[in-house]
Amino acid sequence: MAAEAGSGTAEEMSLKDKGNEFFKAGNYLKAAALYTQAIKQDPSNPTLYSNRAAAFLQLVKLNKALADAETTIKLNPNWEKGYFRKGCILEAMERYDDALSAFQTALQYNPQSAEVSRKIKRVSQLEKDKKRAEEVQNMRSNVDMVRHLDALKSEMSEKYGAEEYWKDIFSFLVETMETAVKTWHETCKVDARVYFLLDKERTDAEKYAPIVNIDKAFESPHTHSNCFSFLRQYAEDSFSSAACLVVPKSIISYPQVWKGQGSRKWRHGQHDGFFVQFESPVLRKLWFIPSSNEKGQTLCRDPEALDIGAHEVLPRIFKEKLPDP
User: Fold this and answer.
1) Which neighbouring-strand residues pair with 304?
2) With CB atoms counted within 10 Å of each terminal CB, which end of the chain scores lower, N or C?
3) 31-80 pLDDT per residue, tens
4) At the top level of its lineage, which domain of life is listed (predicted)?
């Protein structure tokens, strides 16, 4: 019996060593097969499960790898390697919180391990990056301009009076801005356009559309002046109650948004982005929506309110209607 046991141990070691050679050579499938044969010879040896877990990890058979890591830990709860294997597999599964816990347990059993310490640092960063990427995706998917424009409601109420009137205008502004942001997220650009809130009863729908392209407006002082004149007449003839200009910053060569005062007057950084200018007979507003690239995704930042007197994209479109005395 002793001789048979000895013979079995020698065979097991031989299989493990062959498996190690194939593993080092990058033949992980053959290595896993040899570790499996060795496990049949010695099913209570934690090293064999640890090695096969490493092979399965390289083969991206992550569930099998995790099961072997758990068996390694069960067979030898005080061995750092089982927790290390488990951490590496959970990292590959992008279960970073669980991976971090496994690596921290490994460090308890081997506090001097530089390899485990490096893993803890790496996985901690990966977890932060993952959470931030999820936050960015959430912000991209759930654009909420009402939150940013909420303070405008009281000003509109004061200027327009009747709630049913200004609520339509507010909704028009919110919808226009949210659509522009979503378009920018999808394509990294917006077209230079003016959106009009037409009068459903009075506007000739066959003659006047709710959208006017103005991409040529910023090529020269002449085209800019012509565009403004056209838009002012269009707003009047179409019986529009409000308009919203959406213009990418990149196409504005004339006029500069700071009206020739130089970049020192522009205090909103070098971000790409676009302008939204709201126009109505009693209220005018201007915002710049900066854009950045974060975690590989295009992200529009919060709208920044600008002084329309200093930064207007186009002059007043509607003839000013002064409030009643």
Assistant:
1) 288
2) C
3) 999 999 999 999 999 999 999 999 999 999 999 999 999 999 999 999 99
4) Eukaryota
HSE toward the beta carbon, residue 261, CA cutoff 13 A = 11
3-state secondary structure the chain: CHHHHHHHHHHHHHHHHHHHHHHHCCCHHHHHHHHHHHHHHCCCCHHHHHHHHHHHHHCCCHHHHHHHHHHHHHHCCCCHHHHHHHHHHHHHCCCHHHHHHHHHHHHHHCCCCHHHHHHHHHHHHHHHHHHHHHHHHHHHHCCCHHHHHCCHHHHHHHHHCCHHHHHHHHHHHHHHHHHHHHHHHHHCCCCCEEEEECCCCCCCCCCCCCEEECCCCCCCHHHHHHHHHHHHHHHHHCCCCEEEEEEEHHHCCCCCCCCCCCHHHCCCCCCEEEEEEEECCCCEEEEEEEEEEECCEEEECCCEEECHHHHCCCCCCCCCCCCCC
Please state the length of the chain. Answer: 325
- Cα 29 to Cα 202: distance, rounded to the nearest angstrom: 75
Contacts of residue 144, defined as CB under 8 A and 6 or more positions apart, other chains included, come to 178
Owner of token pair 């995706």:
137
Taking the C-alpha atoms of residue 29 and residue 27, their distance in angstroms, rounded to an integer, is: 6
pLDDT (tens digit, 9 = 90+) per residue, 8-32?
A: 455 545 899 999 999 999 999 999 9
- How many whole angstroms separate alpha carbon 193 and alpha carbon 74? 66
> Which residues share a beta bridge with 279?
243, 284
